[in-house]
Amino acid sequence: MSGIKKLVESDPEKLGGTPVFYGTRVPIQNLFDCLETGETLDEFLDQFPTVTREQALAVLEESKERLLIGYESAA
Fold first, then answer.
1. Which of 6, 22, 53, 71 is the most buried (most CB within 10 A)?
2. Which of 39, 38, 20, 31 is nearest to 56 (CA)?
3. pLDDT category, 5, cuts 50, 70, 90?
4. Over the stretch 10-54, which tens digit does the pLDDT of each residue have?
């Protein structure tokens, strides 16, 4: 993926600026909430069909990379 800008958008006209999956009205937070409650990625995608598997996986990968880079920098 070519960066966070193509994964996430935040527009004051769309859900008051809540970060959403690019091209949708699905908050990124919904993905993490579903996973935290034990739902699978497939269950999330069934609930939010406007989000593609590629988008969800890219957001998870971006989150992982940012966490690991932050951790490695602090070590």
1. 22
2. 31
3. low
4. 999 999 999 999 999 999 999 999 999 999 999 999 999 999 999
The domain in which residue 30 lies consists of 4-74
Query: What Cα–Cα distance (Å) separates residue 3 from each residue in 8, 13, 21, 38, 44?
Result: 9, 22, 13, 28, 22
Number of domains composing the chain: 1
Task: Give the count of beta carbons closer than 10 Å to the beta carbon of residue 21.
Answer: 22
The overall pTM is greater than 0.70? yes
Look at the block and give the residue holding tokens 């995608």: 45
Task: Read off the CATH number of the domain in which 36 is found.
Answer: 1.10.10.10
- Residue 69 is predicted with a pLDDT of 84
Q: How far apart are CA 27 and CA 10, in angstroms?
A: 10
